[in-house]
Sequence to fold (180 residues):
Amino acid sequence: MVDVDESLPEQQPDTDPLRGYCPDLDEWPRSWSYEPRDIPPGRQMVEYFTPFLRDLLARNLSRKTLRQHRDNIWALGGEVVRELQMDSALRRRPIEQVVLNLISDDGGPLLSHHQSEAEQRSFDATCRKLFHFLTTSKSTSVDGRRRTEDVIDGTNAKLLAMRVAVKPRSRAAGRRRRRA
Fold:
């Protein structure tokens, strides 16, 4: 009879579907970086994007669609790091805020590598999906588990509040202000 050391866990094959979808996910921060100080925000972005990537996998989309979204999220990470390089004040902000300031219901930033209009449209579609996911669902936990609360947590609510435009005053309010 063979003695088996039960203190060591049995080797399990990697069953995480995200690893199959994004096998190089751990390398994304390094691929985005211009310099070593870009790697920590890159890691934060990977943690921030992971629940969205898992959600895409759960939707049973076609492989082509999944690849497009994955590649577009990777491109978004590169654009965020480029913004950090251009404006060092952004480094003091939470990475979630930096990302949400770049994406909206209209899409994402203009890609800096002069992609075609079709590639920009695809990128914008992914950014819209990500924006919707981040602002309407309770899914920003680091471990990728979705939470099902009815309201947006304080962090996302603050970020959304920064994006809300101030309603212009009415003409009558403007006239009253001028008379006073």
